[in-house]
Fold this sequence. Notes:
38% of the residues lie in helices and 19% in strands.
Amino acid sequence: MMLFPIFADLAQRDVLVVGGGEVATRKAQALLEASARVTVGAPVLSPELQHLRDTGRISCIEGTFSPEWVIDKWLVIAATDDREVNRAAADAASARHILSNVVDDPALSSFQVPSIVDRSPLIVAISSSGVAPVLARRMRERIESLFDHTLGPLARLAAQYRPQIRARRPDLGARRAFYDWLLDGPVAALLRQARPDEAAAALDAELDRPQPARVGSVVLVGAGPGDPGLLTLKALRALNEADVILYDRLVSAEIMSLARRDADRIDVGKQPGENHHATQARIHALLVEHASAGKRVVRLKGGDAFVFGRGGEELEYLQAHGIRFEVVPGITAALACGAYAGIPLTHREHAQSLSLITAHCRDDSDSIDWPALARANQTLTFYMGVGQLDNLTAKMLAHGKSADTPFALVENGSRPEQRVLRGRLADLPERARAHAIKSPALLIVGEVAALADTLHWFGERVGLEAAAATVAP
Ligand code: SAH
């Protein structure tokens, strides 16, 4: 080991920062957060440092560095852009056996400041011993993404209850099991749900219970449109922690490969010969079965679970069965297809509103307000429309939508095989057939769709010649 890691308690201890620029300012601020008594020495101070001095939060010495500045300090940090001054500060510190850090200069430093992931009181510190700072930064990013920000409050709660937990669970094994329950179970979930009082109440109740309650839960997670990079950090965490994952056909294999290795994966897509009602009933039953068995269940859906995803129905069912749930939103197809096709869905000149519409409705139950959708200055996005293009186009034209209204049909949005077909509304069904557009595809209708011709940046575009011809006056 090149360096010995320590966490220093600097509260009310004197620390010297040499330098008055931006870096010195950051260091002084970080030290103040740890309640150190900070003295900054420099010929000129940044405005922030002047403010800290004027409000009495730091002391200052104006002038060029002199070795007696280090006297009685616990630590010295040198952050000037003059290596000789930095060296003088480091030497003066060493002469008095004071540890010193010269920012970005491991050769002159006797201690280094790690990259940190801060979920105080929990702190993860990362060092590459000064030899590979980029690597340390990468590692920090990775760790940062792993832990929810409510981990800090959870650790504080655990600290607050520590004596009681010790008293009620004197046996070490039982105590460990209790802490596992604390991290994995309803207390952590309630903190994520911004319900700290209920979290404390759940902790109290569990302390009184002789046997730990095995409670499962469901996280309804939107997996986004396919590109795994569009998962949220929360979705990734849920996948990392899942015991059971119930996933839909639209969820990509790349996303499934990010899930915890030993999680049970259940494909709950429609079975051959099964109708929607039966599929949904089977999903409800599976959710309740696994959650009741104490499992952490992730219900993973394409896009967002609350946009044409029947997420509401599933939560109502869980609610009726007393099963805890959380919801993690996903990037819905309209947002993803707009972004990946270069189509801003709203635009100051062309579109002041956006509609998400399902094209999948039988004629007899068509409750769509076609006259409203035919008006200008709006963007329409149609989900599940590939089989309905004749019908949709006829309806829009019949209600007065201009035949020249631009459309874009985005197939497999955000995936490597994405294709974007552009054109004018009147030609939509014919051109979609000519290019054999298949599900999943999202239809975007409105002036903004034409921007795909200039703002495209991802994947393939099909039928360009024809689209260009229709754009010309
Ligand atoms: N809950 C999902 C939508 C489910 S309905 C969401 O929020 O995105 C299924 C329809 O979504 C498909 O028929 C298609 O119209 C659209 N869709 C989903 N993923 C898509 C993708 N990657 N590219 C294009 N359309 C997509």
